[in-house]
Amino acid sequence: MKMNPIHLNDAHKTYQHDQDKVMTPETTIARFKQRLAESGLHILEDIVRIDNGRLGIPVYFSVCGDEAREIIGKNKQMGKGATPLQSQASAVMELGERFSLFSFMRDGDNFMTAPRNALREPAMSLDQIALSVSDQSEDLPIALDIFDTLPLKWTWSYNLTLDRSVLVPFDWFWTINEFNGSSAGNCVEEAVCQGICEVVERHVSALVSRNRLKVPRIAEHSIKDPVALELLSKFKQAGVELCLSDFTLEMGIPSIAALAWDPGTFPEKSEIVWTAGTTPNPAKALCRALTEVAQLAGDFNSGGNYVASGLPKFNALAQADYVIDPGHDIELHKLPDLSDINIKIEVQRLVGTLAEKGMQVNVIDVHHPKLKIPAFYTIIPGALFRERAAQPTVAMICAKIIYQNFAPASARKALLDMEKKLPNKYYLHFYLSQIDLNTGNYPGAIARLNRAVELGPGNEDLASIYTYLGVCHKELGNYGEALAALNHADGIDSERTDTLNLMGVCHYKLSAFEEAIASFKRVVALNPSSAIDYANLGVNYRAIGDKARAIEYFQLALSLDPNIEFAQSHLAELGGAPK
């Protein structure tokens, strides 16, 4: 069924504290709970405040009900805001957004699987597919021919730039963007505005961080917004240093980043936090960045670790020198301002500004039919994401989808057919190695991976190749050779949790328990929600006779995932109990 046209309606703001909304946070929360009661969905168990009050900026998370845990695969969703009610509203809307998106993905009726050349309805143009991965390679014509015959999951979107419905390959964009661009709001206009801004925020963040761009610092004397000033004062009172940057670049949409650290607690009890915010209004973009810092920072004294997403983590201030001292400032009021009291006007301005950059906005309606909260998945071909491969091509993503979606025999045949058309491509050897690995042909996988190395991939992909060489050698019981490959990977990219986890496993197998502990600690520093790695720490602490720490880590693992059986067994044997 074709997606209905999105007719933007007037959506006047009635709440304009740190965020711009058509209704107050109290009304948002009450309406969300009412929708839940009417739908019978059990997706919200509780709303819990988690900050310890040091900053005085409230952070809440929504505890997922059983239906949400089953659909999303997580136990909580976090919210942010300058006030307790706004943070709570953010937490429940984040839950509604993710539940709606993942429910949409699970419903096969939302998709038609077919190659593009077999579709009878208007589909996204091939130039937009090329733009989606910024592919300008010599292989592009051949790659687009391959894409055109590749069975994909198509769904209806509405192209706000062209003002028409168009089929888009959902699994293609999920492969390159994942959930970046998902949004929910009190009304269609609010949700669409948020989705567009998030994609732009990720795009400029990727450009700045990948290229180490020296963008202007925001002159603090130019900040006049009372809420922004109040937030800044709370950081200052806690002794937290801030560097505010203009991330707008040439996009014409205000984006601001905040780099924050506490000289009194870093690195023992806190981390350097780097986040960005994009909204039509510069002051609101600043507020968004500041409340995001509070959401991730753990009050700069909890010893917690946050998971980096749009921007990378800095482990030392020296790594952030290009951010802290760019050599020039800009006053906040000199940033572009697309804001209006009517969010409809803001959306139109956002779409128009992106059109001037040659970027089209496509939105997929993913709202849940029972929850009835407006929710969208926004696709803007040409927008970058830091988490995406640095230099993808159409052919590379085609190969990845073939490997992921086809049965092993069919995938092997399709990839070998691609190899005839595109010889000596490292990524084809890589994905063929994955088929060998998954079918137990470890020597064959090693040969393919070594050939991929010879073909000279970029560092990001080289780290992945060496990691999988480590996997193969581990499976063969060659733990020393596995560690040699994994150390190569770690030397290229020190923040790959899969590499570090494998290093920990190999050290454990060699009874090098202290080295294993060091590896697993690096994992949880990067991904504090990794229950299995806390459990692995417990195993290794038990192996060196540190019963107290072993119990502590097993309890922590089970608090995150109560179904880890080996953690349950170890904890019981040590006389501990889950917390």
Task: Please provide a written account of the structure.
- Strands 6, 7, 8, 9, 15 and 16 form a six-stranded antiparallel beta sheet that branches. This protein has a three-stranded antiparallel beta sheet with strand order 3-4-5. A three-stranded antiparallel beta sheet has the order 11-12-13, sandwiched between helices.
- With 579 residues, it is of the alpha+beta class.
- Helix content is 49%, strand content 13%.
- Helix 1 runs parallel beside helix 3 and helix 14 (426-438) packs antiparallel against helix 15 (442-454).
- 49% of the residues are buried.
- The termini are far apart.
- The mean pLDDT is 95.
Number of helices: 22
Largest sheet: 6 strands, antiparallel
- What's the helical proportion of residues? 40-55%
**What is the subunit organization of this protein?**
single chain
* Percentage of β-strand residues: 5-15%
The Rg value, from CA coordinates, equals 24 Å
Q: Briefly note the structural class of the backbone.
A: alpha+beta
How would you state the average pLDDT, rounded?
A: 95
How far apart, in Å, are the first and last alpha carbons?
49 Å
Please tally the β strands and state the result. 16
Unreliable segments (pLDDT under 50, ≥5 consecutive)? none
Shape: globular
